[in-house]
Design goal:
Elements: H1 24-36, H2 41-48, H3 52-64, E1 68-70, E2 85-87, E3 93-99, E4 103-109, E5 115-122, H4 128-144, H5 148-152, E6 154-161, H6 187-192, E7 199-203, H7 204-215, E8 224-229, E9 233-239, E10 242-243, E11 258-260, E12 266-268, H8 269-272, H9 275-284, H10 291-294, H11 303-327, E13 332-337, H12 341-357, E14 367-370, H13 377-390
Parallel strand pairs: 3-6, 6-7, 8-13, 13-14
Antiparallel strand pairs: 1-2, 3-4, 4-5, 8-9, 9-10, 11-12
Helix pairs in contact: 1-3, 2-3, 7-13, 11-12
Length: about 400
């Protein structure tokens, strides 16, 4: 472990609004602009219900803080030309840490959620100390390329990780007791001891769902069920343009849905529709499975096993989609995962086919579509946590005709 606490550069503006959580109306304006790409003052006033004068004051402050960029004047038929305002990509940066069963990723994104730097570490199974060491080493390299202004504009570090990691030891082949270190460890607390950035933590699959909501297809669908096929499948639920967390924060634990397994025996979705299953197939056939976590762009070396896995996985996810839609009338099921884009396309096509074979009397079959964020969805979702905590508002506010401004 590093002996010193990692420190960020202090805010050179000396008291800028960057150093505090934005007030509600400022966050509302930033969220609307992010949602629509760019908006003029008049449109923001109409959507928020705030007066034109109030909006002018807010936008002037946000522009002075370098959070908004002024676009070229757009001339209409009458009156003064409108000036669209958009988020300044360099106005805020955020860091996302994904802790997975086979790999960890640290990513730096800008205010638009675009990845700037990505560091990755693979392993047989996750352990706290190596992951903390990886995080600090990657963070040091990541921030070395940033100037003082950029460092001062890092909103924090979001962490996306499976809950109760110690319970996965047997499934991922860790030795008995090998992952017990997670049981009594508060990873967020440990990381806070080592860095000065604010730390935010969320379940990994829920974070991926949030990334899809914010940076993927969230604008297209008010409600959807989301599946992320990683080493083990997980997911999330979006209702009224917002992630639904449930009473304990565990809503959308889709991997636990019962589905038919071999011999018509009921198993959990996680046992039938996870990359872990493909890994097991490859090992049984004497094929090195390391490309599954070393390369997320090319899985062309084991087509026979991949084709079989896609068929089994598609059938299981189709059952899970039908079960989900019998409880909530989802308009869409979105599928993404830690695999190449062509594998995602093939899997979604197979799921549509399998869903068409099921008896769906009494429910309306949802549209099944590919996610847009891709294999790094969990890390990007983690990076959105500080952005929403400090600068943005929940999505459902943005889809009301007139927001409840204060």
């Amino acid at each position: 472990m590093h002996g010193q606490k990692y420190s960020r550069v202090s805010d050179p503006s000396g008291g800028s609004n960057q150093s505090r959580v934005r007030a509600y109306n400022e966050r509302l304006v930033l969220s609307l602009v992010r949602r629509h790409g760019s908006l003029p003052k008049s449109e923001i006033a109409r959507r928020t219900g705030l007066s034109a004068q109030t909006v002018s004051v807010i936008m002037r402050a946000l522009e002075n803080d370098a959070l908004l960029l002024r676009g070229e004047p757009q001339r209409g038929r009458v009156g003064q030309p409108s000036i669209p305002m958009s988020l300044d990509p360099s106005g805020v940066y955020s860091i996302g840490l994904k802790i997975g069963r086979r790999s960890a990723e640290l990513t730096l994104v800008d205010f638009l959620g675009r990845e700037i730097q990505v560091f990755r570490k693979t392993y047989e199974y996750p352990l706290p100390q190596p992951i903390l060491d990886f995080t600090l080493n990657a963070l040091e390299k990541m921030t070395a390329s940033l100037d003082e202004r950029q460092l001062a504009r890092i909103a924090g570090i979001g962490v996306a990780m499976p809950f109760e990691l110690w319970s996965w030891a047997e499934k991922i082949g860790a030795p008995p007791g090998g992952m017990e270190a997670w049981r009594c460890l508060d990873f967020r607390e440990e990381l806070e001891k080592l860095v000065d950035f604010p730390i935010y933590l969320e379940n990994d699959a829920t974070s991926a769902c949030g990334a899809e909501l914010v940076f993927g297809r969230g604008a297209e669908y008010a409600d959807f069920v989301y599946f992320f096929v990683g080493t083990f499948i997980g997911g999330g639920i979006v209702l009224n343009h917002s992630v639904y967390y449930g009473r304990t924060g565990n809503a959308g634990a889709l991997g636990s849905i019962p589905v038919y397994g071999p011999g018509e025996n009921a198993q959990q979705l996680i046992d039938q529709a996870s990359v872990h299953g493909l890994e097991a197939r490859l090992r049984q056939n004497g094929i090195d499975p390391s490309p599954l976590w070393l390369s997320q762009s090319d899985w062309s070396g084991f087509e026979a096993e991949l084709k079989e896995w896609i068929g089994t996985t598609a059938e299981a996810i189709a059952f899970a989609i039908a079960a989900s839609c019998s409880v909530i009338d989802f308009e869409t099921a979105i599928v993404d995962g830690g695999f190449p884009a062509d594998v995602r396309r093939r899997l979604v096509e197979a799921i549509r086919c399998e869903l068409g074979k099921l008896d769906l009397q009494g429910i309306v079959a949802p549209e099944v579509v590919e996610g847009l964020v891709g294999s790094n969805a969990r890390a990007i979702g983690a990076a959105t946590l500080p952005l929403f905590a400090r600068y943005l508002l929940d999505q459902n506010v943005l889809f009301k005709d007139t927001a409840q401004a204060v």
